[in-house]
Design a protein that fits this description.
5-stranded mixed β-sheet; 20 helices; 585 residues; alpha+beta
């Protein structure tokens, strides 16, 4: 996994800047200064609400030592001492200490690179800082927002003299040794001559890796989370604490961190309480990305003229759309936990296999729409996940991760998921809510993946061999008959008898069939004959033996038969209405 992240950093053009001591930050604000260090203006950066992604921002090492600040690019709080109202005194004192360090570094740098002197002048001027704080309060800026500078019209991040000063200072400071190493009770000798975990070369490993950011929504910390690090005695063999137990050179550590941060920012999707990031060995355009279809299937519109996800996947599989030969995909599922990155799942495989699996996923989920006219639109992946819970916020992360692997690897759908989907279906029936297409597709897919059941069709299947399926069809026909005879009577036969009929049809359907004779007597002769014919046709598939009781899978077939018969009824009703209108014309 880490090898592939490093490789991605080496081939992705937007990560060509990856270098130890630098990182990409979302900079929200820009302060313009004159050549004398006078405040001119405050401008919001371009980009999203968090700001513009800016590479080559200096990143300070050993921030855990306390009192340190990043060089040149910092938060508003650290740079100019902007605080929230009623900020805790402990946080204020900590920020003041970091602000002092921030200024001292700039003073040292300005002695060698005079281009920084205007910024030093600004930070030394209390009146200028007060004006800045007043302006940022007016702009309703957050103290945690990152800011940059424009000095006399120039961007200091584009000044090689400034960047080279930082590189030189950083090397000298790291050689001096960190405060934590000096205080450590364990051996602090340099770990020269270790083998790099990723390159296999003899190196001096880095003691602490840069942090992974962007996991706050899935359990991560705002300051970032560690992917590789050891702090428990059980993991610190041979006195190798921190990151030494997975020795890596700081260059490759920086690369895998930059790659993962970039993927989280630009190629990730939330999956319950986790993030899925994915990439390919060779570049794949967004319009040809099968994993993008899984989350957001293309809509069938005349304007887009793209076709369905299955059509595009078919074009990829047959070579009608150009894709790299022998390409590979990689998918990583992660979340945050107590300051550490938790890897929940890792998948890799060939691009061709991925296309086949996702094409099969959509094929298995294919189901007639509830109006009976056409197939339902291909569901988004999270819609399928939501089909087994009341609300998406109730979806456990392991359930979403399991369905993700089911989709990508073509695995059977776990039986407990279908039990949950069936329970939600019953609620919808009893409360007379619209049918959920993704839920019905998932139920159908369960039987296909369970054993390649060829009787599973997107449409009504009158030749299905299971009596349970036809028992569901029969209930749908009885409900239609009741509505035809009595109109809308509120809680009908379905709301009152669905649960009993789906669990013990032998005790329920016979009684309902007997009552159906009363409904037939209220209809015109021709319509009554049509209903009798439909009921007889359905009953012929059940034959003489109505199941006394149904197990879980049979109850699920009952639900599928009920749904597909309802959809077929609605389609035929619409066709009848159209025929009557055409006759009237």
């Amino acid at each position: 996994m880490l090898h592939e992240l490093v490789r991605y950093a080496e081939v992705e053009p937007k990560l060509s800047h990856s270098e130890p001591g630098f990182t990409t930050r979302s900079i929200r604000w820009l302060i313009e200064l004159s050549a004398k260090g006078e405040f001119i203006n405050v401008l919001p950066s371009l980009g999203d609400k968090k700001g513009q992604q800016v590479p080559k921002c200096p990143e300070m090492h050993n921030m855990n030592a306390g009192g340190r600040a990043h060089f040149l690019i910092e938060t508003i709080q650290t740079a100019i001492l902007l605080f929230k109202a009623n900020e805790a005194s402990k946080k204020v004192s900590g920020a003041e200490e970091r602000h002092k360090y921030f200024k001292e570094m700039l003073h040292v740098a300005a002695n060698e690179v005079s281009d920084l002197q205007p910024l030093v002048n600004l930070l030394d001027n209390k009146n200028q800082l007060a004006k800045l704080r007043e302006r940022f309060e007016k702009e309703k800026a957050k103290p945690s927002d990152w800011l940059s500078w424009r000095i006399d019209g120039a961007d200091p991040l584009q000044n090689n003299a400034i960047l080279n000063w930082w590189r030189k200072w950083r090397i000298q400071d790291k050689a001096h040794g960190s405060i934590e190493e000096k205080k450590s009770k364990k051996s602090t000798t340099k770990k020269n001559g270790m083998i790099c975990y990723l390159t296999g070369q003899i190196i001096e490993p880095v003691s602490a890796h840069p942090k992974i950011t962007g996991l706050m929504g899935v359990g991560g910390l705002s300051m970032g989370d560690v992917m590789v690090g050891f702090d428990k005695d059980a993991f610190c063999s041979f006195e190798l604490e921190q990151a030494y137990n997975a020795a890596m050179h700081e260059t490759v550590a920086r690369k895998y961190v930059d790659a993962l941060n970039y993927l989280i920012k630009n190629h990730s999707r939330k999956l319950a309480n986790a993030l899925v990031v994915h990439w390919f060995k060779e570049p794949v355009n967004q319009e040809n990305d099968p994993l993008a279809f899984l989350f957001e299937p293309p809509e069938i519109t005349e304007a887009a003229a793209l076709g369905s996800a299955r059509q595009i996947l078919e074009a990829l599989r047959t070579g009608q759309r150009p894709i790299p030969i022998n390409n590979l995909y990689f998918a990583l599922t992660i979340s945050g936990a107590s300051g550490r990155v938790m890897v929940r799942d890792w998948m890799e495989g060939s691009f061709e296999e991925l296309v086949l699996k996702i094409e099969q996923w959509f094929s298995d989920l294919e189901i007639i729409a509830r109006d009976g006219d056409n197939l339902a639109r291909e569901p988004k992946f999270m819609a399928v996940c939501g089909a087994i819970v009341r609300d998406l916020k109730d979806l456990p992360a392991p359930v979403a991760a399991t369905l993700w692997r089911v989709a990508l690897a073509g695995l059977p759908i776990p039986r407990p998921f279908i039990a949950q989907a069936l329970a939600r279906f019953r609620v919808d029936v009893i409360e007379d809510k619209p049918f959920n297409h993704a839920r019905m597709g998932l139920i159908k897919a369960y039987f296909i993946r369970k054993g390649g059941n060829h009787y599973m069709s997107a449409y009504l299947n009158k030749e299905h061999p299971e009596p349970a399926y036809h028992c569901g069809r029969l209930l749908a026909m009885l409900a239609r008959l009741q509505r035809a005879a009595l109109g809308d009577v509120g809680a009908g036969v379905v709301q009152r008898y669905y649960v009993a009929a789906s669990q013990t049809p032998g005790l329920t359907l016979g009684r309902l069939i007997g009552n159906a004779k009363n409904h037939l007597n209220k209809l015109e002769a021709g319509l009554a004959f049509w209903y009798e014919d439909q009921l007889a046709e359905t009953w012929s598939h059940i034959k003489d033996h109505v199941p006394t009781s149904l197990n879980l899978e049979q109850q699920t077939l009952f639900a599928l038969g009920y749904y597909q018969q309802i959809a077929a009824n609605r389609a035929s009703k619409d066709n009848n209405n159209k025929n009557e209108m055409s006759k009237g014309e």
